[in-house]
Specification:
Length: 436
């Protein structure tokens, strides 16, 4: 029997801990002699929901087993064992193929906002088993992770975990080796470090059990990359996940500027309507307009160089932007928090200049409206002379612009991945994809 087990929010602090708990469930499932049908799926959901942790990630495990009840009990025990005060753990076990309605639920969890009630309705309708602690919010991610079977583009992440006695202590990873690993494996790994500042990105900074996470295109390259990273502490366990990270999956749908819903994500194309403004704190804002309406686009300070692209825009430029909708408040109108800018068509910019003197080459000056021009140097007059238009270099080119790596969200598709998109998965798992 084919089974899908989804889990979310099994830890209160860091999203990545859900993957750690998942590794223990996978270990138990494998020990019970069940066959995994896929790498565990690490599914990132709508990153623009303010009450979720930054990661907003859930895990789905897909496998074959005879004893569904037994597996569910096992998973529940593991989740209870890791439960911490304040978390909203959710666990869902679904038998058989994933119904279209659950897939649709998952799509909505990437772009919009969903309620636990809606998750419960589907759980009931399809006879899934569920278990939740706290508010039941975890059930949304648990069900949504089951519904995203990663049939479109996907990537992999190898997550290596620390021994419990190291949690909260400094991570002993040699930064130089990370940069060497990046050079040796590019373009098949990504977001290893921030090219602008040199900051290492594979190591999280919280007290969670993750030592490092390496993202890339294939499981094989991740195993190679792991061996290249020099660590001065023990890797307690590791596991490779298949994921929608780095795919821009949350930005697939077009936003309607006439009806922007708070916290929704997507992309929209239009024309820059006003000169961009730089604001307090170094943020940049510009107005974007199309046939449906108009919105304020916000390019925040942490997005680094992306702000300079925004500042270089002028009214009339055609751009596409992707991002999340910020809720309107008393102080601030609805806005779009920009995650990328694609300059589709630059408006040509001209400067007017007085003509040059045909006799001496000096600059001429106007003798008054419709009166022609006179040379300042030699006095030559020309009643027919007209102002010249000279095209000004815009300083930016048409194309795609992203924030620096350090400001990428889990779902942000890095430049390196363009052209490496995949579809379809053959269900084969390589040797050594985990160590427990
Ligand atoms: Zn002259």
């Amino acid at each position: 029997m084919k089974l899908s087990l989804g889990l979310d929010d099994v830890d209160s602090r860091e999203g990545s801990c859900t993957t750690y708990v998942a590794s223990f469930i996978v270990e138990g499932i494998l020990k019970a002699g069940c066959k995994l049908l896929d790498y565990p799926n690490l599914i990132r959901l709508n990153p623009n929901i303010p009450w979720k942790t930054r990661g907003n990630g859930a895990v789905a495990i897909r496998f074959e087993a005879e004893d569904a009840e037994g597996v569910f009990e096992l998973a529940r025990e593991v989740v209870d064992g890791f439960h911490e005060e304040g978390s909203d753990a959710g666990l869902v076990l679904l038998e058989g193929e994933v119904p279209a309605e659950v897939k649709e639920f998952s799509r909505m969890a990437l772009h919009g906002v969903l309620s636990p009630k809606r998750a419960l309705r589907l759980i009931e309708r399809y006879g899934a088993r569920s278990y939740s602690i706290g508010s039941g919010l975890g059930l949304i991610g648990a069900l949504a992770s089951i519904g995203n079977t990663l049939q479109g583009d996907y990537t992999f992440e190898l997550l290596a975990y620390r021994r419990r006695d190291r949690w909260g202590k400094e991570r002993l990873v040699d930064p130089k080796s990370v940069i060497e690993m990046d050079v040796a494996t590019r373009p098949y790994t990504f977001n290893n470090y921030d090219e602008e500042t040199g900051r290492i990105l594979i190591t999280p900074r919280g007290p969670d059990p993750v030592l490092f996470g390496i993202r890339g295109e294939y499981p094989e390259v991740l195993l190679d990359a792991m061996r290249m990273v020099r660590v001065m502490e023990e890797i307690d366990r590791y596991m490779i996940f298949r994921s929608n990270q780095g795919t821009n999956e949350h930005l697939r749908f077009r936003l309607d500027l006439g009806r922007l819903k708070a916290y929704s994500s997507g992309y929209v194309a239009g024309v820059v309507a006003e000169k961009p403004k730089i604001m307090r704190g170094g943020h940049v804002s510009f107005r974007l307009r199309n046939e449906d309406g108009e919105v304020n686009c916000m390019v925040y300070e942490p997005t680094g160089r992306l702000r300079w692209v925004a500042m270089a825009l002028i009214p009339g430029d055609e751009v596409e932007v992707g991002g999340g909708v910020r809720k309107r408040t008393v102080k601030n109108p609805t806005a779009l928090n920009v995650e990328y800018i694609k300059v589709l068509k630059l408006e040509r910019l001209f400067k007017t200049e007085n003509p040059r003197c045909p006799r001496c080459g000096g600059r001429m000056e106007s003798m008054g409206r419709g009166q022609g021009y006179r040379c300042k140097k030699c006095g030559f007059r020309d009643r027919e002379a007209k102002k010249l238009l000279r095209e000004v270099d815009r300083g930016i080119k048409e194309g795609l612009y992203l924030p620096p790596e350090r400001a990428h969200r889990h779902l942000t598709k890095p430049l390196r991945r363009y052209g490496l998109e995949k579809s379809g998965f053959d269900g084969k798992l390589i040797n050594g994809w985990y160590k427990f």
